[in-house]
Amino acid sequence: MFEAGKLDPFTRVIDEWTPKILKPLNIQIAKKKVTKNVFVVGLSDLHIGQKTTASELTMGDDYNIDAVNNIIDTYVQKIAVDIAERNYSFEKCVVISAGDILHSLTGFTEKGTQLECDILREEQFEEGLNCIQRVLSRLLEIFSSVEVHATKGNHSASDWILFKALECSFNNNKRISFNNYKARTSIFRIKNTAILLDHGESDFIKAKVPTSDIGRESYVQNKFLELGDRVGKGIKSRIFIQGDKHHYEQAEFRSFEFIMLSSCVTGDKYADHLGLHSRPRQNCFIIDDSGIKEVLHYYLD
User: CA–CA separation, 171 vs 217, rounded Å?
Assistant: First the structure.
């Protein structure tokens, strides 16, 4: 029925889904002087539904649905501790989801590469829905308002469906807003900073963001020229953000900063066989009127 197009797992999951009741975070955040700073939370390459067994790896640990749930809860708890220790609070929180949140509902990437999965279809979608709903609910405990910007990954277009379902689940909460992009590359504004968001690889064809400095600079500059008018005047800094490669990079080019968000995946057979290893983490930023003020690394190993 699924292959014949007569079964819609998303409709069934959403019709039957209700968010789990969360216990409040075990942390007190005192009222503080509010600054104009914006706290940016990166979500990238969580690959909810991936299955990796440590015994099959040279380096790395087991990665499955239980692991990712523990990791993402730890991530938000670390953010809460960081915020509580500061002597000021933030204007708002911006969540940037750079794609590949779900591993793949079908067990294959959009271009047909077979993947190793822990859970599939409705179960994977529901686990992803519960996981990210929990993240956003926690962030609403910490910050006065949350703004979400989400793009698709190359593993599955279901990331768009996931964030559309999340938007519906928070429909009555005026403290959170969603910007869910269908186009591969999108642009938006945080303070006086223009953010260009691209997963780093297309879900449609083989088309990566170039890895050489010359190619990368040309690609990003062209995108800013094409889309820059959409964010208005008064821009002081420009940042290109991508995921995909599962490691952190930051570089300054002539007219923009390049940032590659890392992944929290603790074990990856594909990367291990290529001899690629990076420390699991997610990345956050503090942005003020001038641009990036702080870069924060939350290690999750």
Answer: 39
